[in-house]
Design a protein that fits this description.
With 618 residues, this protein is mainly alpha-helical. The protein is 52% helix and 6% strand.
Length: 618
């Protein structure tokens, strides 16, 4: 007699139904697992969508109905079923299993896509919040919490088979907002229209100096001094000056500059100097106070002629004209100096204030002309006195430009080394500070000695606004022993070597035979005048005291007592902005020499490295 199992399936004792029972049991187990899996999947998604509950319930009811039908079919066919019938049922079940597995994969894929979209939206929201609220970056605790939660979210949403995303997002959100671009610095600009609006009642005055005796474009901004600034030509010339400007070459500013503004030493006149094809003009923008005018001779034309070292007859200090000197130098060096003097006329040596010149060339150590000018401008702005302010012209967004007097020795004696470093002077701050201290001592010694000799010193410091001691170095004769004395006196100051001493002597102490020598001048002497003959075995870039003296003597032997002036003309020709007016062959020679120097320098460096490697290996 047949028995009923707990599942309601007939259990036939005969052996003909064993295969049927086994097959039915396996079918039931598979369907039960499928039903549980489907229920678990849809129950997890029911939390996010309330409409899925009826669907899950209907699926469960359908599965129960299908199980009931299967049980009924199995029990009714148990007596008469055969192997082919069981085989067909198994094939149907396998097809159903395949369809179910496909549905499960599809559901899982959709769920992964939904999780990915949610994660992308969360990350984009988090990034937008950070960018719109930069103050959140300052909260360390919130950053740590966000980072930890983000890592947890990333760990729980690991994707085994990544799918293409609509947006490319980083796995870790950026903790720092992108840096904002730095604000654009407004460049100060000296407009001709703005300059013309300053003291319009002061007219242009002609110095009546021919162009072969003075060209400000080749003198004011070529490294002798650092207190003149080019004015931008905005085609707004005065009616009486229209058509009188020409294109000239300036050292490092604009190449077509024809007007410059600067402060005249000693009297603190702020002047505008204009170059014309036939002469040089000037206009006073700011004059000293009445008290200062009483203390000083304020004939500006006379002061300018002294500044440019031009006598009443357009001659130099000893009566020689610059054109005469050009001719002498060209005969001494026709191949090079002859071509340079024809291309660059009117290069003069200025007669500056010794105190300002000394501080300026202490700042020139390992520096260039624009950088030196910037440092000295900061020094004037901080410790000098404002003389005139030039506002920007209409429609110009630039900053106003102010001109200051150079600080006196007494002003800088109260300045610490740290304050100078804050202005950007670097290691030169120590040099300036120690120079000020030593010069103050020399001033007191000179005053005491002058009083003992019965000389008048009262008011002299106020008059020249400079240094009594440095001015006294001008009074020596022009002999070679006097030059040695001046060099020895100047090299006592910190940061002053032979080259800086010669610059101060040439540009402020009337030493026309002083020849400042640096590496560039040494190479110039080797290239043009065969100085390499006496440098054999010493190295072409080693400026020992003996080599320094030999190069200076070479210039003095060739160009005479005005060797320092001739040196200045050759130096101007080496400046990059003047190459456009030089002969093409000379420029090509300069380029070839420079390339050869670079190759020799690279070979020497390589040789040094190889020698060091061999030494280390041994």
């Amino acid at each position: 007699m047949a028995q009923k199992s707990p599942h309601g399936i007939s259990c036939l004792p005969d052996s003909s139904t064993v295969a049927t029972l086994s097959s039915s049991s396996s079918i039931f187990v598979r369907r039960s697992l499928r039903k549980r899996t489907r229920t678990r999947l849809f129950s997890s998604s029911s939390s996010s969508s309330s409409s899925s509950s009826p669907t899950i319930r209907n699926d469960e009811e359908k599965d129960e109905d299908e199980d009931t039908d299967t049980e009924t079919t199995s029990s009714s066919s148990s007596s008469s079923s055969s192997s082919p019938t069981i085989r067909n049922d198994e094939e149907k079940d396998e097809d159903e299993d395949t369809d179910t597995e496909t549905d499960i994969r599809t559901t899982s894929r959709r769920r992964r896509r939904r999780r990915q979209s949610t994660e992308v939206a969360r990350q984009l929201t988090y990034r937008d919040e950070e960018q719109s609220s930069p103050q959140r970056l300052d909260t360390t605790s919130s950053l740590k919490k966000r980072s930890t939660s983000q890592k947890n979210r990333t760990a729980t949403t690991t994707i085994t088979s990544p799918l293409p995303l609509p947006l490319e997002t980083p796995t870790t959100p950026s903790r720092r907002s992108p840096p904002s671009p730095p604000p654009k610095k407004t460049k100060k600009r000296l407009s001709r229209a703005a300059v013309s609006a300053i003291s319009p009642q002061n007219h242009w005055i002609d110095l009546q100096i021919p162009p072969d005796e003075l060209r400000p474009s080749a003198t004011l901004t070529t490294g002798q001094c650092f207190n003149w600034y080019a004015v931008d030509d905005d085609d707004d010339d005065d009616d009486d000056q229209k058509g009188t400007t020409i294109t000239t070459t300036s050292a490092w500013g604009t190449h077509d500059a024809t007007e410059w503004i600067g402060v005249l030493p000693r009297t603190h006149h702020v002047l505008s100097i204009r170059e014309t094809p036939l002469s040089t003009l000037y206009r006073v923008l700011s004059a000293p106070s009445e008290e200062e005018e009483e203390e000083e001779e304020c004939d500006v034309s006379t002061l300018l002629r002294d500044y440019f070292q031009i006598g009443s007859d357009s001659s130099t200090g000893n009566g020689a004209r610059l054109k005469t000197l050009y001719d002498e130098w060209s005969r001494a060096d026709p191949d090079r100096m002859g071509q340079i003097t024809a291309a660059i006329p009117g290069v003069r040596v200025l007669r500056q204030d010794p105190w300002e010149c000394l501080i300026s060339f202490i700042c020139s150590s390992n520096n260039n002309i624009p950088r030196i000018t910037l440092l000295l401008e900061r020094l004037r702005q901080r410790y000098g006195r404002e003389l005139v302010r030039i506002p920007p012209s209409d429609g110009d967004d630039g900053e106003p430009w102010s001109f200051f007097s150079f600080p006196t020795l007494r002003n800088l004696s109260e300045v610490s080394e740290q304050e100078l470093r804050e202005l950007g002077f670097g290691y030169r701050a120590k040099y300036i500070r120690q120079t000020v201290e030593l010069l103050s001592e020399r001033e007191e010694e000179f005053k005491d000695r002058s009083i003992e000799q019965g000389e008048e010193t009262e008011g002299y410091e106020t008059s020249c606004r400079s240094s009594l001691y440095l001015h006294s170095l001008r009074d020596h004769d022009q002999s070679s022993s006097s030059l040695d004395h001046v060099q020895t006196a100047l090299t006592e100051f910190c940061g002053v070597g032979r080259k800086v001493a010669d610059c101060v002597a040439l540009f402020s102490l009337d030493r026309r035979d002083a020849v400042p020598v640096d590496v560039h001048v040494l190479r110039m002497a080797i290239r043009n005048y065969g100085a390499g003959e006496f440098l054999t075995g010493r190295g072409t870039t080693s400026l020992t005291p003996a080599v320094y003296a030999r190069v200076g003597d070479l210039f003095r032997e060739r160009f005479g007592s005005y060797a320092g002036w001739a040196h200045s003309v050759l130096f101007v020709a080496e400046l990059p902005s003047f190459r456009g007016v030089l002969p093409v062959e000379m420029v090509r020679e300069m380029d070839e020499w420079k390339q050869q120097e670079m190759a020799e320098k690279a070979a020497a460096k390589k040789k040094k490295v190889v020698s060091k490697m061999k030494k280390d290996q041994s």
